[in-house]
Write a structure and sequence with these properties.
Strand content: under 5%
Radius of gyration: 13 Å
Distance between the termini: 38 Å
Order of helices and strands: HHHH
Structural class: mainly alpha
Amino acid sequence: MDIKHEAIKKRFDLISPHLSEQARRLFVAAEAKALGRGGISIVSAITGVSRAVISAGIKQLEGPCTRKNAKRGRGP
């Protein structure tokens, strides 16, 4: 595993327990998009999140931000 992949694994392991299912999906999707071609497979192998879940997250990231997937609650 190269340094970039180790960094993804470390970030995922640190933040994952604190994220909702949706936030976790968006996090891994953003990591996969940042890697470019082959990113979905790489992030799936590193994190154990399925390629289908990562693909769904990418579709969500690329789509319009709707009230359903927008941040809920008050405050900054």
